[in-house]
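Materials and Methods. Structural model of Carbohydrate ABC transporter permease. The 279-residue sequence of Carbohydrate ABC transporter permease from Paenibacillus chartarius was retrieved and submitted for structure prediction as follows.
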Amino acid sequence: MRTQRFNTSPIVTHAILIVFSLLMFYPVLWWIFATFKSTPELALPTLWPREWLWRNYPDGWNALPKYTFTYFYLNSLKLNIATTVLHVISASLVAFGFARLTFPFKNMLFSLMLLTLMLPSQVTLIPQYSMFHSFNWINTYLPLVVPAAMGGAFFIFLLVQFIRGIPRELDESAKIDGCSWFGIYWRIVLPLTRPALVTVMIFSFIWGWEDYFGPLIYLNSVDKYTVPMALRMFIDTQSAVAWGQLLAMSLVSVLPPVAIFFFAQKHFVEGIATTGLKG
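The predicted structure was written out as tokens:
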């Protein structure tokens, strides 16, 4: 009688993956449970709260003087929606020009644009601040929004690689039908680059939402602060920090980018996977 072998390798592999996944998820799990703990209990080596302090969320939301976190949430949303829209529009236009048009010094300009990716932001910080100060833009959102109208070198490079994978025969067919270059961009290229555009939107929103350094440099008024600045001020305004409330607000602050990523995950993976592939 022939004995049937039981293949244990997939079971062992999945068990190892589950164990390592739990180890990687443990800090997040601790963070979630810590939002329901008191400050003295956070020093104890326990995961499960002894007493569930649900009031950490409403108390943390209203902890800052004169302003609730609703105010800072709206500031971050308005700022990041504006920068995301500008990034998508300007990066797609510039990328279309580099990928489809022919003009003098095209390759040199594209190379110079890529070189800007190698410059640390700290190198250009002082010249940018001096320029924006001469424009009287300090303590406004303009230093954070206007640079997004330049497209961003990384976003332009990402879209150029994607557009190069779109067959040029579509452009030629559109030209025969009397379509202009802008018509080709708007009617043909833009719809076909939707996965890459969603990728640009996700990166732009997440990077802008978590940006702390930019608002710290250019914003002085509390009424213009974004969520990261509000979390920092949360620590400054209390002599004894209520860490449970602070952790609760930090957890609430990451919900918008996480939600956007999961809702647009399909297009994001498609945009990353197909970027650079030739048609």
